[in-house]
Amino acid sequence: MTKVTLIVGANSTSSRLNGLVEYTQKVLFDYKIQTQVIQVHMLPHQALLTADVMDKTLQKYNEQLAASEGVFIFTPIFKGSYSGILKTYLDVLPQKALANKVVYALGLGGSQHHLLALQYALEPVLKELGTEELLQSTYVLQDQVTKEERGFTVNETVRQRINQQLDQVIQRIELKQQGVRRWEKIV
């Protein structure tokens, strides 16, 4: 079964960012893709802050990530960059943890002024972690995700943008599973 890991760099589960996570999980479920969510703020804080790569909990999550065909990164955008919470987890990943995976990043910010934060701040780090198939990131404004009494509502335009990228993710994962190469690596 196809597995995708969702890494969430929010500081709580009530963050509107989790509206994007919930919506993405729902769509992936419709595709019959198994998802696992890593809420970074719930990982052992001491291990993250000291970059204790020997911590058993971190190792367990890193192993789950290694077994995934796809990795989605969700982050709030603060002051033109991704969250420090997310950075603490990315720092404890093995050097090429995202190699041979389809990677997709989604960011949630307060204004259009931070539209390129994912491209300029997060994507270079993801590439350093071995990402070869990085889909175009999706930046979403906070007011496009509404917090409801029983969850979140994601704006229709945002859902369409996410759906287009998820279609690409599914296609690329299926090609990888069939052994079809989209390009040759230049060594």
TrEMBL record:
Pfam families: FMN_red. It comes from the Bacteria. Keywords: Flavoprotein, FMN, Oxidoreductase. The keyword Ribonucleoprotein does not apply. Residues 2-140 form the NADPH-dependent FMN reductase-like domain. InterPro entries: Flavoprotein-like_sf (IPR029039), FMN_Rdtase-like_dom (IPR005025), NAD(P)H-dep_FMN_reductase (IPR051814). The keyword RNA-binding does not apply. This is FMN reductase. It comes from Candidatus Enterococcus willemsii. The lineage of its organism: Bacteria, Bacillati, Bacillota, Bacilli, Lactobacillales.
